[in-house]
Amino acid sequence: MFGGLSFIVDERMAVAAGRTGDLLVRTDPAQYDDLLQRGGLPAHMGNQRPMGRGWLSVPSRQIHDDAELAFWLEVGINSRTASS
User: What is the pLDDT of residue 2?
Assistant: First the structure.
C-alpha cells in the first residue's frame, strides 16, 4: 500500500515502510502538532493531496537509531484516529 510494506495492528494500518526508508505513520490528530516538532512531516497521497492530521511521513534520516524507530512504531500502533 502506498508503494511500501504496510503493518496492520488490530485491523488498522499502523505504519507503512517506504522503498526509500521513510515511514508513513498513523497518528492521533491531537498529537499531530507535537509530532511535527519531533520530525514528522505532513503526509501526502498522489498529487500532493494531504492525508490529514491522522497521518505523518517520517523521513528515513529522522529514523537514525532503534529508539527513534521504536518511538514512531509506538505512535502508529497506539493512534486512536477515527479515519482510515
Answer: 58
**pLDDT score at 46:** 74
Domain count of the fold of the chain: 1
Task: In whole angstroms, give the CA distance from residue 13 to residue 11.
Answer: 7
Examine residue 84 and state whether it is found in any structural domain, yes or no: no
Contact 40, 56 (CB under 8 A): yes
**What distance in Å separates the CA atoms of residue 71 and residue 84, rounded to the nearest whole number?**
21
Q: What is the pTM of this model?
A: 0.86
| Structural domain boundaries enclosing 34 | 4-78
Average pLDDT, stretch 41-70? 92
**pLDDT higher than threshold 90 for residue 75:** yes
> Is 47 within a domain?
yes
Phi, psi of 67 (to 5 degrees): -65, -40
Q: Round to whole Å and give the CA distance between 45 and 65.
A: 27
- Answer whether residue 30 is part of any domain: yes
